[in-house]
Amino acid sequence: MSADITAAFDKKEFPALEPGAMCYMLSKQGYLNDSGGHWHPHLMFFIPLTDPASWGTGLPGSPVVVAFTDTLERHTVFLVTVSK
Hints:
It contains one helix and six strands. The chain is mainly β. The chain has one domain. The strands form two sheets. It has a four-stranded antiparallel sheet, with no helix packed on it. A two-stranded antiparallel sheet has the order 2-3.
């Protein structure tokens, strides 16, 4: 499956990420997984592959608490928790 996804990206069969692509997960009952349990409501911003430090991920006072790169799908995801 990974090889098929990589080939589809290489052939440009998937559309490019739109500028400002994002989603939100605002449920107070959000469940991450068995080991992570419940997690905070948050916004997720999707951008082409980049270094998570470019948005200040994890720095004191930064709203970006978590970021990860998905090299298979060729993007970086930044998560910003929201309290209200």
